[in-house]
Amino acid sequence: MREARFDEKESLIRWTESAGHGPARVYVHGLGAASAPYHAHIAARPELAGRKSLFLDLPGHGLSDRPADFGYALEDHADAVAAALDAAAVQQADLVAHSMGGSVAIVLADRRPDLVARLVLTEANLDAHPPGTAGSSRIAAYEEEHFVGEGHARVLEQAGPLWAATMRLADPVALHRSATGLVRGTDPTLRATLMRLPMDRVYLQGGLSGDLAGHDALVASGVRVVVVPEAGHNVMLDNPAAFAEAIVGQS
Q: How many CA atoms lie within 13 A of 2 on its CB side?
């Protein structure tokens, strides 16, 4: 396990790393998740094996520290990821990022283009104020104190067993602030930022998740949109073979 400081109080972001050749692949998880449970099986597939791979846990999640006075906004998470990549001497990486992690990856690619050569985003949040049925919106609907006191337990009960398994590892304050930042979004929007980024960009949409909003505009801006059959939000778990094929892509 490796670690790097990400704030003035020397809190640590942590990741596991496998050795390999070529540009690194950096895997970033979504809200209330952790990277290895969602992505380690993908990195081990024959078509992807042999590349240096980092499985990052965002602040407040998984094995990383969870400082109570940290903001946990998308920009805060992106800066923490940058600290990890700088410490790991990683540049021009392929970022493979899921859901909120994809939003963090967009912010990082905009702020530190030296770190990112390619984005592979799995159902990343591109717009503020997602539907009320979205996990982030359900969490952000609580006031922070209420969520920490009662809402966290309720959300865990309502979450499916897979999400609950990793959400239990996330700090409730970090989880609420991360969800609130995701719902708030960015200015300009994540969608607008993604559309103007210069690097290779791939967006994976689960075929069971419905139509991707703004599909044609994303494609027109150079984003390669891949609709993965027989997959929902967790494409890497629902259809690993198609997920791995999309990562290989033009990489």
A: 18
Q: Which residues pair with 94 in a beta bridge?
A: 25, 118
Q: Is 38:236 a contact under the CB 8 Å cutoff?
A: yes
Instruction: Kindly report whether the global pTM for this prediction surpasses the value 0.70.
Output: yes
Q: Which residues of 161-183 are buried (b: 16+ CB within 10 A; e: fewer)?
A: eebeebbebbbbbbbbbbbbbbb
How far apart, in Å, do the first and last CA atoms of the chain sit? 26
Q: Are 155 and 138 in contact (CB under 8 A)?
A: yes
For the four alpha carbons of 86, 79, 62 and 158, in that order, the dihedral sign comes to: negative
Tally: H helices and E strands in the chain: 12, 8
Q: Which residue has the tokens 């891949």?
A: 226
What is the rounded distance in angstroms from the CA atom of residue 240 to the CA atom of residue 118? 20
Q: What is the pairing mode between strands 12-18 and 51-57?
A: antiparallel
User: Which 8-state DSSP code applies to residue 188?
Assistant: S
CA distances from 105 to 83, 126, 201, 239 (A): 13, 11, 11, 22
Domains defined along the chain, listed by start: 2-123+193-248 (3.40.50.1820)
Model pLDDT for residues 60-112, shown as the tens digit of each residue: 999 999 999 999 999 999 999 999 999 999 999 999 999 999 999 999 999 99
